[in-house]
Amino acid sequence: MTYKTGELDITNKTRCAQTSAATAPEPARMKKFAVYRWDPEKPGDKPKMQTYEVDLNTCGPMVLDALIKIKNEMDPTLTFRRSCREGICGSCSMNIGGSNTLACLCKIDDNLGKATKIYPLPHMYVIKDLVPDMSNFYAQYRSIEPYLKKKDGSDKNIGDKQYLQTTGDRAKLDGLYECILCACCSTSCPSYWWNSDKYLGPAVLMQAYRWMVDSRDDYTSERLFQMEDRFSVYRCHTIMNCTKTCPKGLNPGLAIGEIKKMLAKYNSKEAKQLAQA
Amino acid sequence: MIRASFGKGSALLTSNAALLSSRLQPVVVTQLSHTSTRSQTEDIAYKEMEEFWDKNRRLNRPLSPHLRIYNPELTSMLSLCHRATGIAMAVTVPFVAATLLGLPGDFSSYIEYIKDLHLNPAILTAAKYVLAFPICYHYINGIRHLAWDWAIGFDLKTTYQSGYFVMALALLVTAGFVHLL
């Protein structure tokens, strides 16, 4: 179609009007993020808070989106762990707004008047900025032997047959196997803060329970016997911060309660003999 | 056998121990009671734990903030209240009893003495609240703890509902004791 200058077809005019309305700039919604910073490579550096302002109109809805935007556009030195961005890997666990959660699942609070405070997981040694040293947590997980142990003896027949399990027994694992080991619960527990060297913490204890209660595992008594000391389980005082903070909606407090019940009921002398056999 | 154990029952001791332990982590990490039967996996795990403490002390890394930044949740606040009221009673009841044993006169003479001071009744009521609340709260929350020992009421919704209920009931019973007795 040919046009004279300044003269437009009606359909084209309305289309142009629509696009020009859509591209009219929205007022920027600036949100403040106060983030914990510490650089090990700066000699004598002390941990401090650094505030960034992010336009929420050009940012995804989750706190992880904001952190990535800050790192991409404002400060490339901001350091944090992240991977799946969908709440399944457990990498981006940190303390946001006072509670431990996954940054990729935590919606940014729309209230522009308040800054969102972001800290690393509480009472953990900081490697840099929001990255804590998780080695102790992983070592504690390793110490409970989180794998199937059978008393069959022979290793030759592994994989020949399925280990059968009733649906009832499989249901016992629901709410336990979904743990992604993000450490939000353990680092929310004041008892774990004061005793992280000897108390195993809710995450590891829930996994210990997951193996105790698995019908295919033959070492339940020995697993319980491993907890027979003042610290591994019994530093839990049912504070219940763990269940409150779990970003996957799991209940470590319940698992620990069940372990305590099992410890009261099982035959510890027999377990000792089995363990030392 | 536990080596170099710091944490004991009370929050005060454990927080002091935390200050100590964050600076002086035990070189040997706890050996659990079944040392003789430890598997290879556990050996590796305990070795890793020792290396963790050694490395972090050596590098002098900061500890991320905890108490001053963590949200006060109903769960942790009620638990703290339980511990605080427990310690308060464990300290004051024997102390008062021992003091009264040592001082001349009997209990009623001291009540008379307080009556003769003619204090503002508001102060007396406040003091009665302060005296009655610990035992009411600790007792009622104690029942909640007993339920937990049987693994009853652990889901988050029930924990919160029972928590609010316990606090409300404790305040109600305290008010009852103060104003009706």
Automatic annotation (TrEMBL), chain A:
Q: Which cofactor does it need?
A: [4Fe-4S] cluster; [3Fe-4S] cluster; [2Fe-2S] cluster
Looking up InterPro entries in the UniProt record yields: 2Fe-2S_ferredoxin-like_sf, 2Fe-2S_ferredoxin-type, 2Fe2S_fd_BS, 4Fe4S_Fe-S-bd, 4Fe4S_Fe_S_CS, Beta-grasp_dom_sf, Helical_ferredxn, SDH/FRD_Iron-Sulfur
For this record, the Gene Ontology CC terms, alphabetical, are:
mitochondrial inner membrane
Q: What domain of life?
A: Eukaryota
Instruction: Write down what this protein is called.
Output: Succinate dehydrogenase [ubiquinone] iron-sulfur subunit, mitochondrial
Q: Which residues form the 2Fe-2S ferredoxin-type domain?
A: 31-124
What EC number(s) is this enzyme filed under?
A: 1.3.5.1
Origin species, per record, is: Magallana gigas (Pacific oyster)
Q: Where does the UniProt entry say this protein principally localizes? A: mitochondrion
Entry keywords, A to Z: 2Fe-2S, 3Fe-4S, 4Fe-4S, Iron, Iron-sulfur, Membrane, Metal-binding, Mitochondrion, Mitochondrion inner membrane, Oxidoreductase, Transit peptide, Tricarboxylic acid cycle
Regarding the membrane, this protein is recorded as: Peripheral membrane protein
Q: Which terms under GO biological process does the entry name?
A: respiratory electron transport chain; tricarboxylic acid cycle
Family, according to the entry, reads as follows:
Belongs to the succinate dehydrogenase/fumarate reductase iron-sulfur protein family.
Signal peptide feature range: none
Q: In which pathway does it act?
A: Carbohydrate metabolism; tricarboxylic acid cycle; fumarate from succinate (eukaryal route): step 1/1
One Pfam family this sequence matches: Fer2_3
Q: How is the cofactor bound?
A: Binds 1 [4Fe-4S] cluster. Binds 1 [3Fe-4S] cluster.
Write out the function statement from the record. Answer: Iron-sulfur protein (IP) subunit of succinate dehydrogenase (SDH) that is involved in complex II of the mitochondrial electron transport chain and is responsible for transferring electrons from succinate to ubiquinone (coenzyme Q).
TrEMBL record, chain B:
Kindly provide the name given to this protein in its UniProt entry: Succinate dehydrogenase cytochrome b560 subunit, mitochondrial
Biological process (GO) annotations held by this record are: mitochondrial electron transport, succinate to ubiquinone; tricarboxylic acid cycle
On whether Cell wall biogenesis/degradation is a keyword of this UniProt record, the answer is no
Topology in the lipid bilayer: Multi-pass membrane protein
Q: List the GO molecular function terms.
A: electron transfer activity; metal ion binding
Q: What is its main location?
A: membrane
* GO CC entries: membrane; mitochondrion
Residue ranges of the TM segments: 84-105, 117-140, 160-180
